[in-house]
């Protein structure tokens, strides 16, 4: 007899989800403030330069990781379940040595050709120092990611959330404000980023040692490095491919073919659109170790139920934000700052793609945790090349707007490919029918607001318009859920929430119980 997925697994998962979503809310909230302050305080053109530099840094970082963060979560979880802690420690040691070695090559390159890099991407030879300073922070970023992946492999989510989602953005914002107060602008943004990476690596090391001391004392054991790399290397771009890596690649394309000002507008619209990652990452982080357990135990029917339930909850919580930003992007940006209004088209197009990432991201996790990393290598090659070709073609005709359209197309391809791969692996479609009703819940307030706005004699967009539309939209969405959702489904949701509450309460009282 199969497990009751809703009652047995969701409360435990949701405990991690709540922690993850709180972390995501802090990260996106602070990051949102940071990304609004930067273009205001240093100027949109300098914001474009900073975004290009950060894009280059993140691309070098992801390559240096070599997919090992996902490898640690997958293989490390298996080692832990099998009681092979010595192999887990060896995996961590090897991952740090391997990734820092790769990063050293990028650092050497940045110091050897700073002027050439600066001329290519910034249209000036005076910004080579930015690349040098940012690339020097890469080893610290790698150390942080690997040590925190160790705790995630043990199903301890809170440490990763604390450092990456809470402390890191808060430190970056606080240090930038400090440096700006001292008179630094673009320089202050660069130094605050690098300093944050150093501080976070020190905190991650402390957490790693603290967690390790609570586990049985064992020595290092030999691991199959070839097998580890054969799984991890094909995942080299997977952790950020469809969110950050797309922005990094397309930011560089705009930087080459268009102005720094357009780079700044595109980056602003894209970063705001990434609010949907709160709901995706909030579920995916605690979702992946449990996927590995289901697959390891051959519990495929439970995997299907669990997967469908996760997708439904991502849509239920995340789709309203996606719909609102898509249809009310002008009102949103005007409410923030009138100077940001030209970015509305980027925000609208990119937000509309979230519906496809709601489907593709959980499906991607299923495929990765199934050990099919080679599939993802092929996916990555196809999608990155396709995106670059489409971007270059569209930027010629539509300038920077074409880049936003190319990302939307990539989101669609991403969802189609990962859906077909899950279907091939486990013979089910990872799209539950319940999401159709949720999409209707979103459509109702859109239609009502559209009718009301057309009946009104006032057509100007103001902050009052934003507040009115925001209130109507989310009120009608909630009303639609209670009016049109099935009673048993509402009751099931209420039970999950109640069980989750008691699980979190118990976790707060007895945290060591969950180590």
Strand content: under 5%
Q: What characterizes the major β-sheet?
A: none
Write down the Rg.
23 Å
Assembly context of the chains: single chain
The helix/strand order is: HHHHHHHHHHHHHHHHHHHHHHH
* Straight-line N-to-C gap: 29 Å
Which word captures the global form? globular
Low-confidence stretches: 511-515
Number of strands: 0
Mean pLDDT: 83
Secondary-structure-derived class: mainly alpha
Question: Roughly how much helix do the residues carry, as a percent range?
Answer: over 70%
- Please tally the helical runs, counting DSSP H or I stretches of 4 or more residues: 23
Summarize the structure.
With 515 residues, the chain is an all-alpha fold. Helices cover 83% and strands 0% of the residues.
What does this entry look like structurally?
By secondary structure, this protein is mainly alpha-helical. Helix content is 83%, strand content 0%. The protein contains 23 helices and no strands. It has helices at residues 5-8, 10-42, 44-65, 68-82, 85-112, 114-122, 128-136, 138-153, 158-181, 186-213, 225-232, 241-257, 260-273, 277-296, 300-327, 329-336, 344-352, 354-369, 373-398, 400-426, 434-455, 463-484, 487-509. The longest helix has 33 residues, at 10-42. The radius of gyration is 23 Å and the shape is globular. Residues 511-515 have low confidence and may be disordered.
Present the secondary structure layout.
Elements: H1 5-8, H2 10-42, H3 44-65, H4 68-82, H5 85-112, H6 114-122, H7 128-136, H8 138-153, H9 158-181, H10 186-213, H11 225-232, H12 241-257, H13 260-273, H14 277-296, H15 300-327, H16 329-336, H17 344-352, H18 354-369, H19 373-398, H20 400-426, H21 434-455, H22 463-484, H23 487-509
Helix pairs in contact: 2-3, 2-9, 2-13, 2-14, 2-23, 3-5, 3-7, 3-8, 3-12, 3-13, 4-5, 4-8, 4-11, 4-14, 5-7, 5-8, 6-7, 7-10, 8-9, 8-10, 9-10, 12-13, 12-19, 12-20, 13-17, 14-15, 14-18, 15-17, 15-18, 15-21, 16-17, 17-20, 18-20, 19-20, 21-22
């Amino acid at each position: 007899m199969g497990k009751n997925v809703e009652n047995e697994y969701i409360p435990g998962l949701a405990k991690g989800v709540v922690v993850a979503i709180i972390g995501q809310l802090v990260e996106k909230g602070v990051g949102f403030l940071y990304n609004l302050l930067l273009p205001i305080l240093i100027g949109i053109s300098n914001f474009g330069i900073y975004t290009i530099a950060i894009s280059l840094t993140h691309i070098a970082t992801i390559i240096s990781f070599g997919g090992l963060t996902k490898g640690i979560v997958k293989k490390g979880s298996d080692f832990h379940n099998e009681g092979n802690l010595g192999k887990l420690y060896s995996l961590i040691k090897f991952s740090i040595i391997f990734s820092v070695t790769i990063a050293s090559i990028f650092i050497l390159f940045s110091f050897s050709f700073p002027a050439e890099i600066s001329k290519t991407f910034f249209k000036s030879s005076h910004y080579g120092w930015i690349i040098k300073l940012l690339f020097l922070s890469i080893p610290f970023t790698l150390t942080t990611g690997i040590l925190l992946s160790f705790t995630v492999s043990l199903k301890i989510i809170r440490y990763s959330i604390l450092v990456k989602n809470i402390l890191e953005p808060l430190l970056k914002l606080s240090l930038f404000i400090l440096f700006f107060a001292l008179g630094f602008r673009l320089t202050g943004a660069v130094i605050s980023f690098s300093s944050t990476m150093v501080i976070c690596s020190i905190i991650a090391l402390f957490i790693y040692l603290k967690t390790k001391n609570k586990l049985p004392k064992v020595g290092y054991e030999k691991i199959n490095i070839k097998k580890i790399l054969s799984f991890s290397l094909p995942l080299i771009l997977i952790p950020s491919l469809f969110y950050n890596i797309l922005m990094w690649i397309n930011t560089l394309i705009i930087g080459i073919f268009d102005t720094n000002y357009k780079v700044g507008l595109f980056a602003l619209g894209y970063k705001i659109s990434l609010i949907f990652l709160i709901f995706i990452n909030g579920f995916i982080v605690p979702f992946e170790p449990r996927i590995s357990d289901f697959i390891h135990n051959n519990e495929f029917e439970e995997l299907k139920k669990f997967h469908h339930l996760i997708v439904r909850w991502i849509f239920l919580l995340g789709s309203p934000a996606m719909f609102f930003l898509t249809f009310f992007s002008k009102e949103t940006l005007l409410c923030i700052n009138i100077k940001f209004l030209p970015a509305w088209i980027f925000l609208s197009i990119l937000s509309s793609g979230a519906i496809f990432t709601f489907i593709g991201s959980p499906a991607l996790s299923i495929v990765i945790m199934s050990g099919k990393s080679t599939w993802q290598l092929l996916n990555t090659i196809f999608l990155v090349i396709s995106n670059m070709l489409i971007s270059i073609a569209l930027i010629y005709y539509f300038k920077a707007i074409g880049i936003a359209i190319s990302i939307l197309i990539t989101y669609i391809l991403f969802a189609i490919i990962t859906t077909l791969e899950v279907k091939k692996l486990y013979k089910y479609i990872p799209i539950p029918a319940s999401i159709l009703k949720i999409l209707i819940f979103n459509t109702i307030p859109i239609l009502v607001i559209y009718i009301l706005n057309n009946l009104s004699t006032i057509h100007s967009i103001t902050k009052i318009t934003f507040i009115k539309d925001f209130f109507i939209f989310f009120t009608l969405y909630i009303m639609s859920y209670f009016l049109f959702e099935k009673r048993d489904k509402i009751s099931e949701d209420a039970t999950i929430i109640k069980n989750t509450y008691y699980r979190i309460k118990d976790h707060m009282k007895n945290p060591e119980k969950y180590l």
